[in-house]
Design goal:
single chain, mainly alpha, two-stranded antiparallel ribbon, two-stranded antiparallel sheet, 4 strands, globular
């Protein structure tokens, strides 16, 4: 055996190997020392995610492949892996108070987040349908358990069960689509599929439909969004923050890689699917959120709408479109983490409150918190010059350049409608009578909120680094 050759083969998967080994070590630590290790395991998991990110950045530049091309590390994968790691680490930081309560002191929570992140990294680097499915299931199986981790809460258990049943259905649809694609192309590798699927036969198109249906579930796009509001409301808030950030990065990553690298010859066929899904997601996200009174359910519909906006860029099928998707998801993660930091800060007398009316008069009881939340809501609405405006700008410009004028116009209109419910929250904070002061905000929440809030407010001053990295990542797919 040539050890040097074997070492080079394993080099692209070194960050994943370190993450998997670290997760097993932490599992053994927790199993032997019990629930008292929850705090230590959580902070060691955050450190492990940071080390994994550093290893990812230290890999040789250029495109690396291993396992016969099944696993790809390129600029696209690096960008999204770092983003997923940031989302997971921030979620664990936000979870510190939740895990400090005796009733929810479970060391397995942080390990499940780490294992789910491992699945995301495999998913982002998938170069064929088998690796795609392995990564998807590794990510999802951990998420099923995390969603129902609050065993004493009926809503949390119900959320986990709904997510599991619908997730199993979507996995079946994805596998059926993958089997059709393999049957009609004779290969599972994306490069081989691209060579064999230069013309869209009926079988391949059906396979693409089922494959994309399975992926739509993971990004909670219409019509596979049914689980999202219930899971977001039922799961503990830190877990909801996790669902809303890192897994969306991985799902959008594989969505982008599959469509652009496996099916570049049949763009018109899958473009129709994405245009429909995008319009439906933007419309439902805009209109269904208007009547919500629970802030977590509102964020669920907001998430559905934002996935629709991200898919506008992907529907273009161009480098500009892929670049728009990458910039959008990066800014979306920042906006989402900042918003959930504030939702987690909504506590009175040690009890979490989730109704929008509980924010009444926040500008008078906690002006700084109200200011940051208002800025994040304006950003989610796409108001210039905040980061959310530029996120939508890039995807709409890509759609217009690809002659998808109707899609861009509908996107702008639904964005205006969606702004109504964001502005209504701001109205509650600034013009309604105070409902009472919130408890002091913990340092972990303040840290995440400060980073996310400042990024959203000051992005316009120095957008160059994110744009240049996203452009290089998008070009690596073509």
């Amino acid at each position: 055996m040539n050890f040097q050759s074997a070492g080079y083969q394993l080099l692209p998967v070194l960050p994943e190997l370190v993450l998997a080994t670290g997760a097993m070590v932490l599992l053994m630590l927790g199993a032997y020392r019990g629930q008292d290790t929850t705090r230590a395991v959580t902070w060691l998991s955050i450190l492990l995610l940071i080390v994994t990110g550093a290893l990812e950045l230290m890999l040789p530049a250029g495109k690396l492949t291993t396992f016969g091309g099944s696993f790809i590390v390129d600029d696209f994968a690096r960008f999204l892996k770092i983003l997923a790691l940031i989302g997971s680490a921030a979620t664990l930081i936000l979870s510190a108070e939740f895990l400090s309560n005796p009733s929810s002191r479970i060391f397995e929570y942080a390990i499940l987040v780490v294992l789910s992140t491992l699945g995301m990294m495999v998913l982002i680097s998938a170069g064929d349908l088998i690796m795609l499915y392995l990564g998807l299931e590794l990510m999802s199986l951990a998420l099923y358990v995390v969603a129902a981790s609050n065993r004493d809460n009926a809503k949390s258990t119900e959320a986990g069960l709904k997510y599991f049943v619908l997730g199993a259905l979507s996995s079946g649809m994805l596998l059926y689509g993958a089997s059709l694609i393999y049957g009609f192309t004779g290969t599972v590798g994306f490069a081989g599929i691209a060579a064999a699927a230069k013309t869209g036969s009926t079988g391949i198109v059906f396979g693409v439909v089922f494959l994309l249906a399975g992926l739509c579930f993971k990004v909670s796009a219409v019509p596979f969004h049914m689980w999202t509001p219930d899971v977001y409301e039922g799961a503990p808030t830190p877990i909801t923050a996790f669902f809303a950030s890192a897994p969306k990065v991985a799902a959008l990553a594989v969505f982008t890689r599959v469509t652009l690298t496996a099916f570049p010859g049949i763009v018109p066929q899958w473009q129709q699917i994405l245009v429909f899904v995008s319009i439906a997601s933007m419309a439902l996200g805009a209109f269904a959120a208007i009547g919500q009174t629970n802030i977590k359910r509102l964020m669920a519909y907001s998430s559905i709408g934002h996935m629709g906006f991200a898919l506008v860029g992907l529907a273009a099928g161009t480098v500009e479109g892929a670049q728009g998707v990458l910039i959008y998801i990066a800014i979306y993660v920042a906006m989402t983490l900042g918003s959930f930091a504030i939702i987690l800060a909504m506590k009175r007398n040690g009890q979490a409150v989730e109704e929008i009316k509980d924010l009444s008069g926040l500008s008078r009881t906690n002006p700084l918190l109200a200011f940051f939340f208002a800025m994040l809501l304006f950003s989610l609405a796409g108001v210039p010059p905040l980061a959310g405006f530029f996120a939508k700008w890039y995807v709409f410009v890509a759609a217009i350049k690809a002659d998808l004028f109707t899609l861009a116009v509908i996107g702008v209109l639904t964005s205006v409608v969606g702004a109504f419910y964001y502005l209504s929250i701001i109205k509650v904070m600034y013009f309604d009578e105070p409902a009472g002061k919130f408890d002091p905000v913990r340092i972990e929440l303040r840290t995440v909120l400060a980073v996310a809030g400042i990024f959203n407010i000051l992005y316009f001053a120095y957008p160059g680094p994110l744009v240049s990295v996203a452009t290089a990542a998008a070009k690596s797919l073509f």
